[in-house]
Amino acid sequence: MLEIKYDELGGIVNVDERIDKKDIQVKRKIRQGYNFLERLLIKNSKKVNYLFDENGKYSCRAQIAPSVIRIGPTNRCTGRCFYCPREYIHDKGTGYMDFALFEKIIAWAKANKVGTISFALFGEPFLHPRIFDMLDLAVKNGMKIRISTNAIVLKKEWAKKLLSYPFESIETSMDGFTRNEYLKGKQVDKYEQAKENILYLLKKAKEKKSKILFNVHFVDIGNVSFLNKVRYIRFWKKELKGLKYLTSFYYEPHNWAGTRSHLTREMNFVDRLLNKWELKKPCMYIKGMNIDWNGDVYICTNDPAEKAVIGNANNDSLEKIYNGEKRMKYLSEHESGRFKNLNCAVCNVNSVRPLAVIKKRIINAVVGVFS
Ligand code: SF4
Hints:
By secondary structure, this protein is α/β, with parallel strands linked by helices. The protein has 14 helices and 12 strands. The site of iron/sulfur cluster (SF4) has 13 residues, from loops.
């Protein structure tokens, strides 16, 4: 068992040696473009076709800046989720974003009419000692804000202040209904702490009649029993009553651009079979901009590998990075469906697995009836 080492702010600094990134094998597939069914999907699905203009090109090519910037105030975290590729995330070291860099990003965002700053990338945003100054600065400059947290360090005394911000959404992750399920998911013994913090925040939000959209979710790959899925949804629905909230309480983990492809192998036989039939589609994540604590700009929030870094905000202008060659290559390959040298070839975020979707819909309907 790994001895977890924390920094003075409560961020985990070490990575379990068992998951050394050199051990992960990514099988490459060469594609010749979208097939007939994929083209049909792209043309007819409202969830996909809005990405393209009438010439089949990404509409965001016309923008010089994204509408959303996702910031990682730190890449350290308070959890060790089994589905998180932290050996990649920690690969170039760990730390906390310089406030001066954050100011530079916000100044650029304001000048380029970026609408939203989302504090959600690879680490736990509430670990940053100046997270409230970051929120203040974004709001003062007219940005909408969102945040995602596992709530482990979400102090109760912060609730009032937090709820005074005009957040679009606060997303919390509570992996499992029981302490054991949580331990399997997050791999840290913080079940009670996280649960109490979320419950307190929701209680205060209800008292305040907050208009923030909340989400309490878990990631499941069979570690949460069916009965506990029902119990989880029933419990959190009750706690969220009176607030705006998302009704999708659980997700299957994606494969993090292939860096967690072994998760698929851990699925049961039926799920593996259902996941086999996969249709590729253009990815929506490459519309945005994702800036890590050290200024590295990632093509998306789901690929933590070095290859996905398209520039560094300390060295280049953000406009140059957003409109640069590296990002354009992503756009071109997603437009054509040939993901030659990109991790997108093995990522399952840009894919639809029709049989798995049908199964999930059935389970959600059944769980909905029982909860
Ligand atoms: S398809 Fe590519 S851009 Fe989209 S999430 Fe996966 S790795 Fe990122």
